[in-house]
TrEMBL record:
Signal peptide: none annotated. One of its GO terms (cellular component) is cytoplasm. CDD domains: BPL. The keyword Ligase applies. Pfam families: BPL_C (PF02237), BPL_LplA_LipB (PF03099). Keywords: Ligase. GO terms for molecular function: biotin--[biotin carboxyl-carrier protein] ligase activity. It comes from the Eukaryota. InterPro entries: aa-tRNA-synth_II/BPL/LPL, Biotin_CoA_COase_ligase, BPL_C, BPL_LPL_catalytic. This is Biotin--protein ligase 2-like isoform X2.
Length: 331
């Protein structure tokens, strides 16, 4: 078996505050990794002048575009890593809130429901930390993350003056373009010292046409002049948007974001089949309901043909959330 070389993790901050933190994290050597190969840590300032891979993530460019006050300011970058999600979730307590880990390639990319996330070159692969106190809104933060991705892509297209790429949200956490999945969000959380530690991971096919399609392939078909979106611009625009949307979400609730969310998702007015038990509870019958929006707990709100509102839950068995939906009647 061919031995793989050690991974490198480069630490970098937007300002002196985060760069001093990077130095202490390196000196204290407290980061833990699940990777089978050793991970060696260095500071971006130590390698800045060395020959760098022009295809690797451009840390300086990312920091230049980033304009947040908390999210994305402390960065860990690796050309090749098991999973950015593992780095963030296993080291949550050692990292500042908003810390991000980004990789060019992942060898153990994680998707939802224990799926694998294919993570070739060209895919934007990152995870970051959020901390929340109110458990009732934790299930909704994943929707704020999805919205920040779609808004970031819109914003970049607008700034470049090019045709808007219409990335849509397929509930709960998929990003679709031209009818194909181009991205996904994975949010996991743990509870410690009265706080919810949320790790949010984003995979977005920027220039990798496999396994489905990517943003740049669609852009090439839409625009006469060649334009390419860069991962660094998208990640910085993501955090710039996320910070604003998250402030609204925490201050005013998800309702304030609903008009934008419903404009961006694929489901308003969608008719879906739900499986109900008959009156004797011994047979499953299928009924049609129409999706109206989200319930306060983040499930689908639907209305049946007899006007009854209900909350739709996935049955947990199907990969496609819209198959095997189970409904809970709402008063
Ligand atoms: O659609 C899904 O199933 C969610 C996919 C999330 C993938 C991202 S890629 C960056 C981060 N690291 C991982 O291992 N997974 C998430």
């Amino acid at each position: 078996m061919e031995a793989e070389s050690a991974s490198v993790l480069v630490l970098c901050g937007k300002s002196n505050v985060e760069n001093e933190f990077a130095l202490s994290l390196k000196s204290n050597n407290v980061l833990r990794f699940l990777d089978s190969n050793p991970v060696s840590i260095c500071l971006h300032s130590e390698i800045r002048n060395l020959h760098c891979d022009s295809e690797g993530f451009q840390v300086d460019h990312y920091m230049d575009v980033l304009s947040t006050s908390q999210f994305g300011r402390f960065l860990m970058y690796s050309p090749r890593l098991g999973s950015t999600h593992d780095v963030v979730s296993h080291n949550f307590g050692e990292l500042p809130i908003g810390a991000v880990c980004v990789a060019d390639v992942q060898t153990k990319g994680r998707g939802r429901s224990k799926n694998v996330w294919e993570s070739p070159k060209g895919c934007l692969l990152f995870s970051f930390t959020i901390q929340m106190e109110d458990g009732r809104v934790v299930p909704l933060v994943q929707y704020v993350v999805s919205l920040a991705v779609t808004e970031a892509v819109k914003d970049i297209c607008q700034k470049k003056g090019i045709q808007h790429l219409d990335v849509k949200i397929k509930w709960p956490n998929d990003l679709y373009l031209d009818g194909l999945k181009v991205g996904g969000i994975l949010c996991t959380s743990t509870y410690k010292s009265n706080k919810f530690n949320v790790s949010a991971g984003i995979g977005l096919n920027v220039s990798n046409e496999k396994p489905t399609t990517c943003l740049n392939a669609t852009l090439q078909k839409l625009t006469p002049v060649a334009h390419e979106l860069q991962r660094e611009d998208i990640m910085a625009a993501f955090f710039n948007k996320f910070e604003d949307l998250y402030t609204v979400f925490m201050g005013q609730g998800f309702q304030s974001l609903e008009p934008l969310y419903y404009k961006t998702w694929l489901h308003s007015g969608q008719r879906v089949i739900v499986q109900d038990k008959n009156d004797n509870q011994d047979q499953v019958v299928e009924n049609v309901v129409t999706i109206q929006g989200l319930t306060p707990s983040g499930y689908l709100l639907a209305i049946s043909e007899d006007g009854q509102t209900c909350e739709l839950h996935p049955d947990g068995n199907s990969l496609d959330f819209f198959k095997g939906l189970i409904r809970r009647k709402l008063a």
